[in-house]
Amino acid sequence: MSYIYGKGRDFYPLYRFPSKPAEEFIRSVEKRTGQLTVIPNTAINTAWPGELQISIRLSNVACVAEGNDVYGVYEFKPPLSEYIEKALEDYRVPVMTPDSLLKRLAVSTQNCFAVSPDSLIQTLKKNKVNYAIVASLRAVPQMNTGNVINTMQRYFYFVEQKYPGILKLVHQIGNENEEPAWLYQINYSLYGL
């Protein structure tokens, strides 16, 4: 539909959300990076100093989802590692090891997966995607059940976990109650990508 209404413009399609099994993904990242720290997303407080929040977010190497719960997996490198680790201790943030997280996921009855925000954004950049259409496409086409096909929403949720503000809302059609669609510009330069 985007191609038809876009009058021949090129569109890069996202048909599925590219996730991997959590254990496989975490083990491959550990081989490459070494020691990792896991923090529940709910533990990162927006009242913390902006510098601390962005230092933590930019250290993200993966996101792991267990149902609706999301955990950030981080590689804290010097010179910021001491600053971040002290702040996490001062704020009493519950940190975990990757092994602790994987043990939790092994007994979970929820859908669990891992994804790399860097891989997601690099896929878009490599394919010269500068704008994204996020629509409220009905899961049941004949009726508005409130459930939508959320491939794009999930994709950009995980991109925003590492790169907050990288998406700039350009245009919206419809309000929140009318199955809206949004056009976002991807601001790669905000993070020097």
Structure write-up:
This protein is α+β, with helices and mostly antiparallel strands and 193 residues long. The protein folds into two domains: 94 residues, no CATH class; 75 residues, Cell Cycle, Chain A. The protein is 35% helix and 20% strand. It contains seven helices and seven strands. A four-stranded antiparallel sheet has the order 1-3-2-4, with helices on both faces. A three-stranded antiparallel sheet has the order 5-7-6, with helices on one face. Strand 2 and strand 3 form a beta hairpin. Helix 6 crosses helix 7. The longest helix is centred in the first third of the chain and has 12 residues. It is globular, with a radius of gyration of 18 Å.
Which sequence of strands runs across the widest sheet?
1-3-2-4
Span between termini: 29 Å
Please tell me the total number of domains.
2
The number of strands is 7
- What characteristic shape results from the CA principal axes? globular
User: Beta fraction of the residues?
Assistant: 15-25%
Helix content range of the residues, please? 25-40%
Q: What composes the largest sheet? A: 4 strands, antiparallel
| Global mean pLDDT | 91
Unreliable runs: none
* Category by helix and strand content: alpha+beta
Rounded radius of gyration (Å): 18 Å
Question: What is the number of helical segments per DSSP (H or I, 4+ residues)?
Answer: 7
Helix and strand element order: HHEHEEHHEHEHEE
What's the helix and strand layout?
Elements (H helix, E strand, L loop, with lengths): L1 H4 L16 H12 L3 E4 L9 H9 L1 E7 L2 E6 L5 H11 L7 H9 L5 E4 L1 H10 L4 E5 L15 H12 L4 E7 L7 E6 L7
Antiparallel strand pairs: 1-3, 2-3, 2-4, 5-7, 6-7
